[in-house]
Amino acid sequence: MAQILAPSTQCQARITKISPVATPISSKMWSSLVMKQNKKVARSAKFRVMAVNSGTINRVEDLLNLDITPFTDSIIAEYIWIGGTGIDVRSKSRTISKPVEHPSELPKWNYDGSSTGQAPGEDSEVILYPQAIFKDPFRGGNNILVICDAYTPQGEPIPTNKRHKAAEIFSNPKVEAEIPWYGIEQEYTLLQTDVKWPLGWPVGGYPGPQGPYYCAAGADKSFGRDISDAHYKACLYAGINISGTNGEVMPGQWEYQVGPSVGIEAGDHIWASRYILERITEQAGVVLTLDPKPIEGDWNGAGCHTNYSTKSMREDGGFEVIKKAILNLSLRHKIHIEAYGEGNERRLTGKHETASINTFSWGVANRGCSIRVGRDTEKNGKGESQSQSMPEN
C-alpha cells in the first residue's frame, strides 16, 4: 500500500535514553495513582502494596537503562535466527569482550535445535553463523543485534536456512552487476493479548466497515500508532533501512517499508525489523501476527509485498526487460506461490486488493493483479528512480 523511492542518505537517530514501553504491570501503577487521586484507599494495605510494587518497578527500570560503558569494554550481543516454522524469530544473548564492527569478529554459537523444531533430540546442536550486525535499540550503548543463519556441526545449512542459498545467488557476478533493488512492504496486525482480537475492536464485535481507517488519524480510526512509531524510531536507531510506515485498510493493521536495499541486505534488514517489532509488542502487552488473513470476511488481509528492479530495468528500454521478467514469473507462478508461506489461499481470493491465488496476472497501477507495474514506469519506459517496478501480490 505504499511507494518506496530510490535510495537516499538515511538519517541515523541517536537515542540517549529509551523509555520503556508500558507493560501490564504498569497498569497496576496507574491504578494506584487513580486510587490516590480519589483518596478512597490512600491508607489501605492494598495501596501500600501498590506503592511498594511501584518502587520495585522503578528500580528494575533503572537497571534496564543502566549505562555500563564507563565500567567495562564488554558488550551484549543478541544472536537472532529464524525458527523451525520459517516465520518465528528466536534469540539469545552472550557477552562479547569488546565492541565489534563486523560479523566476522563474532564467534559462532549454538542452540538446541530440538526445542525449535530444527533438529532431533539425539543430535540437537545447531550452529549459528553471525551474518549482519545492527545497533541494539533496547540495550543501547555498543550492544548489538546479530542476524544469524543456522548450520549443522558439519557445516551444512539446515533445511530452514534459506539465507545460505540466497547469498550464493547474490554473490554471482552477473547478479551483482545488475544491482538488484528490493523494497519490502511488511503489513502486520496487532491483537489484544487475552482475546486474540484486533487492537481497537470491541471484544466479540466488529468496528465500522473499512474505508475510514487507511492512513487515518483519530482515536476512533487509528489503533496502535505508538507501537508503529516506536518501531519506526527503533529501526532507524538500529541502522535498518526503513523508509516509511502507515496505517492500513483494516483497523488495528499497520505497514512499514524497508528499502530500497541491494541483494542479501534486504533479507537481513526485514528480519531484523521483524525481531524489533516482536520485542516492542512484547513490551507493550500486544500480540503481533503476520497471518495473511487474521479476520475472515470483508476485511483486508496482511501481505509482505516485494518491489523489485534491476539496473537493466532502470535504464532506457527497461520496460521491455520488465515485461520479459514478468513472463518468466508467470511460467513459475505455482512454484512461487508455494514458497510464499502458509495461509495465502485465505488472502489471495481476487477480492480486497488481491489477485486470485490460482491465476497469474499483471497490469499497470492495478492492485488486483499478481504483478503491478507503476504508472511512471509505463510512462517513462523504464523503472527510473523507483524500485516499485514489479510488486507481487
Automatic annotation (TrEMBL):
Alphabetized Gene3D superfamilies for the sequence: Glutamine synthetase, N-terminal domain (3.10.20.70), Glutamine synthetase/guanido kinase, catalytic domain (3.30.590.10)
Compartments reported by the entry: Plastid, Chloroplast
Enzyme class: ligase
GO MF annotation: an example: glutamine synthetase activity
Database matches in Pfam families: Gln-synt_C, Gln-synt_N
Segments for region (Disordered): 373-393
InterPro entries found in the cross-reference section: Gln_synt_N, Gln_synt_N_sf, Gln_synth/guanido_kin_cat_dom, Gln_synth_cat_dom, Gln_synth_gly_rich_site, Gln_synth_N_conserv_site, Glutamine_Synthetase
One CC-aspect GO term: chloroplast
Biased composition regions of type Polar residues, renumbered to the chain: 383-393
SMART domains, sorted: Gln-synt_C (SM01230)
The entry's keywords: ATP-binding, Chloroplast, Ligase, Nitrogen fixation, Nucleotide-binding, Plastid, Transit peptide
Record-annotated GS beta-grasp domain positions: 75-155
Domain GS catalytic: 159-393
GO biological process: glutamine biosynthetic process
EC number from the UniProt entry: 6.3.1.2
Basic and acidic residues bias: start-end ranges: 373-382
PROSITE patterns in UniProt: GLNA_1 (PS00180), GLNA_ATP (PS00181), GS_BETA_GRASP (PS51986), GS_CATALYTIC (PS51987)
Reactions catalysed: L-glutamate + NH4(+) + ATP = L-glutamine + ADP + phosphate + H(+)
Lineage: superkingdom: Eukaryota
UniProt similarity note: Belongs to the glutamine synthetase family.
Subunit-structure text: Homooctamer.
Protein name: Glutamine synthetase
Taxonomy of the source species: Eukaryota, Viridiplantae, Streptophyta, Embryophyta, Tracheophyta
